[in-house]
Specification:
heterodimer; A: 448 residues; alpha/beta; four-stranded parallel β-sheet; 18 helices; B: 709 residues; seven-stranded mixed β-sheet
Chain lengths: 448, 709
Amino acid sequence: MSVNAVLQQFASSGVETCFHGRHINPQIYADLNGSNWSLSAYEQRGGYQALRKILGMDGGQGLTQDEVIATVKESGLRGRGGAGFPTGLKWSFMPRQFPGQKYLVCNSDEGEPGTCKDRDILMFNPHIVIEGMAIAAYAMGISTGYNYIHGEIFQVYERFEAALEEARAAGYLGQAIMGSSFSFQLHAHHGFGAYICGEETSLLESLEGKKGQPRFKPPFPASFGLYGKPTTINNTETFAAVPWIIRHGGLAYLECGKPNNGGTKIFSVSGDVERPGNYEIPLGTPFSALLDLAGGVSGGRKLKAVIPGGSSSPVLPAHVIMDCTMDYDSISKAGSMLGSGAVIVMDETRCMVESLKRLSYFYMHESCGQCTPCREGTGWLWRLVDRIHRGEGRETDMQLLDNVAESIMGRTICALGDAAAMPVRAMVKHFRPEFEAMIQSAQQAVAV
Amino acid sequence: MVEVELDGKKVEVPPGSMVMHAAEKAGVFVPHFCYHKKLSIAANCRMCLVDVEKAPKPMPACATPVTQGMVVRTKSDKAIKAQQSVMEFLLINHPLDCPICDQGGECQLQDLAMGYGASTSRYEEEKRVVAPKDIGPLISMEEMSRCIHCTRCVRFGQEIAGVMELGMSHRGEHSEIETFLGGTVDSELSGNMIDLCPVGALTSKPFRYSARTWEMSRRKSISPHDSTGSNLVIQVKNHQVLRVLPLENEAVNECWIADRDRFSYEALSGTDRLTQPMLKQGGEWVSVDWSTALEYVANGLNEVRAEHGANAIGALVSPHSTVEELYLAGALVRGLGSQSIDSRLRYAEFASPRSKARWLGRSIASLSTLDRVLVIGSNLRKEHPLFAQRIRQAAKRGAKVCTVRSAVTDWAMPINTDIQANFSDWVGTLLGIASAVARIKGVKPLVDAFPSALAEQLANAMISGGDKAILLGNAVAHHEKAETITYICNWLSEQIGATVGFLGEAANTVGAQLVHALPRQGGSSAKDMLSGKSKALLLVNAEPGLDTLGGAESVAGVSKARMVVTLSPFKTNLGCSDVLLPVSPFTETAGSFVNAEARLQSFHAVIRPLGETRPAWKVLRALGEMLNIPGFTQNSVEEVLSAALPGASAGSCISPDLLSNEAEFPADWSEATIEPHVASMYQLDGLVRRSASLQATVDAKRFDEGVNA
């Protein structure tokens, strides 16, 4: 599909992607118009200057590996894929003196419902990811990297391949980059659309050509990753944040957000808003400001609830989310997770039972089936919610639903079990009366 | 060592151990399904979740490495709650059809559900239904809805059998174990998957619906097939063998057995069992009583001795016979003044008698830890499934496996150097390897031979590394130039520092040599006896048409004798025999086998003899007594054993003083002209030949199609 066709598709569905000009202090999405993705345009925007800087190409001293990691640590950059793990710390775990092959992997298997930020980065600003990965590879002494791209956005994969070709031709990738002693080969790989392959160890299995199933941890990828070699895996947006940090310094990035939550973050706002799309704003921006950027609740209706960080993050009722700022700590304090930054807005007309049914179906469908609680539990959750929604709920179902979700949580190999259980528990916690009303009306219908 | 506190008990385990190992050491049972000590860790069943202090979530005991001072509680509220919830999940889609399930009574899920399951289910939705699969004649996959997806069978295929024949397809609750593309499971070790399956998903096809485990007695025995001497548990009901399972013996078979050990029992209650002594009179077989039959045989032997001399009396004894049978057959023949006894039925070369027995040259267990191994003239995987399994584990740890063989067969392990040579070129090929070794070592070669590039490669591989073995297969033992090959291999072993050993064809190949079931000076060898040199022949568990190099020619040769007496559990040799004496198969007699590593293993009868069948040792003893041969006074099999192998004790290995693989310097280095005869895996002996299920396998069918599996 051509770029124009993609753009038209967005336009016709009323969805603006990322070049709408309503970001706040954007770094990754800055100055994008949908067609300036190529190397020359990226260089005009200051692209690859960070890589040149660390390699000492523009007259400077260059940065040592330790200095790069220290800068990233200082920036307070946290993993943008969902877990929010401090990136600098993760990089420092990599055994830099390890004699054999090490790998760098970019997780672009963006599959969390509601999330579409990485797609736009790779489509409209692919070189920023390439540069970020090259810097990361330099910092950790890695010579080979892979970008694992979600299988259902094939045109994005093709775009990234095109960008890779440009970067290789320009000498930003490959042997002895820009004449330095640093070499880095980067390859793109597309998955086939399994949600589970976004889980890092599952992604590694898939990248190795095996069935995408998570590995048990420990050992962690930093010691036993791709092909059993030390591997660092970061999200696309995380890598995309790195060039700015190197160019402007860690402190500048940290100051752009708030303490422990440095920098900007892209939020994919969807659901009942006037202008769904990707919004890059500094961490710590009030939720209400983000909602305003997205044009407010659609049709001027009342906000009911928000799923703040992708479908697996616990739902927050309107009064809770309206008091939150959009950053890891604030959302966490409110009882949810910033996750991947997919903000799903639900207005007063939304039926929470139906919403939960849809979410539960997704997790049942995407469970890999490897470990017992998730394989069996996700199906049970869906069947329970479906039963309530069909009007066949029983009085004990709320207790059972919460109990089954509780039984899955923390007992699975990977986080998918938790991801399936958390929305259920949050819905039961915040919107119990809605479920109970549906069950009761079903009971009355039976009685009549 | 790392000290761990487990349920209040302090235990020390080596670093790198898992909590499960610590629990085993502390004698604490942690419930589990997917964990198996011989398989890789999957941590997928989640049944072994335990409470580890300082860990926020319950941790799987099988996959959590111990740390110094770790405090583990396997029965705290947190642990029990986690285990109970996993059990609930396992049961929601399980059919709970225990009353009609073959696994009932020996099911891990059933057992653990007693401890961790609720009495009623909270799950009231429809249960998952999984389509049945047909994966061959041995394993039933009829009730795959019972599967709990522990993937033990998958990991067994990948790691132990070396062939991934089963996998988990699809995703989530649609996950199912299958062969993909509707294939069959053809591994020669496949039956172990039945044992590994913790539920009734994989069950034994031949055994299905024949008995409940608690109705059967469990009796120990030893497998009578290949030279491993696998330890068995034979399950018996109403004097019938209904099932065979492995008995764990880490030194011998670990916890595995080959499919022929497991399924050959079908022959025991087959229709061609011989249940009455029979005489051929006027071309017709007539059932007679034992005394008539034995008198007939005794008279016949006396007449032949009187007319043709004692050496005209011969005995061909299968090396699948027990030590006691081989010993008494030898004593009988020698008591009559003959030296004509042989157990080398498939051999082509009959070297002068040796006083010491050829053997594996090392322990079976040490095969698992070899660094270098050269296998000559063997289809290792099919001839010695469990030795192959051990060498596969060694190869996985980096051992280099080299081979010289005539045909390429898949051993399901990486082969470092594979030299294909026709049997006629083996001497030349090995001389080439020897000169390559000589050149590298700077010593004088045996013969100036030009080594091929592959021979150089093999020599280089075998010179490096620590623990090494040269293993000679059945095709070498049965080879026309067996002595020459053995001599060259001994020379090689001295140069490279390896052991030399014979893999050994049969359960008692070593035992037969130890009790001298071989001709001495003046006696006829198997070749002579089979070509019509004997006037009276005793065929003990031997079928000349199938067990010998000559095949049909052997039958014709045997037929020339005046009297042929077959001692067999089966109605066989009907054309060439004059007398059929029904003798016990291994399940109906006590006896002993000496396996490849010279381990003497004794067993008892597990059922009473069928019909008029009698243990062969008793028949031979009675015959000896009737012929007034001195020394035939034993009243128990133990007495026979102590006469046969004085000082040997069951379960231990025979003194190395009695073992040797030395060979004489050959007269010449000429090539062989006779192709060695090696039994196809399911034609090895009378039992496997008559097991219907084994004969329905792909390996057996390959033999029918003329391909030596």
